[in-house]
Amino acid sequence: MKQEADLISARLKTPRAAAIAGIVFSVLMISGLLLLRISIPGNPLEADTWLKTSSGTLVRTLYMVPFAGIAFLWFIGVIRDRLGELEDQCFATVFLGSGLLFVAMLFASAAVTGGMIMAYRARPAAFLDSAMYTFAYTVAHEIMDLYAVKMAAVFMISTSTVAIHTNVFARWIAFIGYAFALFLLLSGRYVQWIVLVFPFWVLLVSIDILIDNIRRQSQARATS
What we know:
Layout: H1 2-11, H2 13-39, H3 47-53, H4 55-62, H5 64-83, H6 89-122, H7 124-129, H8 131-166, H9 171-186, H10 197-223
Helix pairs in contact: 2-4, 2-5, 2-10, 4-6, 5-6, 6-8, 8-9, 9-10
């Protein structure tokens, strides 16, 4: 009986890791996006304002992005491990591919933003007067507000579909994922704060997995 309980406890470590990784990603992502949205204006013509006053805050915020990406990759990995043999190859491919593309675009947008700050610090007047500033600003916004947002929607759809068939997390969270994904897919590229629904949904998934893990551990101790 004790060996069986130890086996159950060992198998439950991965869901806990998934929950912790998802929570770390959500907190870092929400915090970073809030700081970025507050610091960077929607109008590229206001460059002389935000680059002068907010560059220090932005640099510190950009340092959070790699850790958020790492946490999200860990979240993907342990979700797949939780699925185990129940993982469907079709949805697993879409789930993994959209997640990896989201992280890649998140990194790309952050790198372009960081490059803008460094270029401004090197030659402020020359950079603002050049077409390179407008190009870099547009690229950073397009990557994050259009392409990364759509990949986040695909990730939520595929993950929610898998969850409904396997009970990886609560079904009501999966239905919320469908609603959020539809909102992301149909919304315009310049809707402010829209990308925040994605880390909020990941936070819901992570909390549900953590609660389920704690409940199963309590049941395992009770039967041992």
